[in-house]
Amino acid sequence: MKQTLFTSVLLSLVLAFNATAADKSKLQVSNAWIRATPPNATVAGGFLTIENTGAEDRLLSATSSAAKSVEIHEMSKQGDVMQMRQLTDGLIIPTNKNITLKPGGLHLMFIAPKQVFSEGQKITATLVFAKSGKQKVEFTVHKSAPAISDQK
Question: Is this structure's pTM higher than 0.85?
Answer without folding.
Answer: no
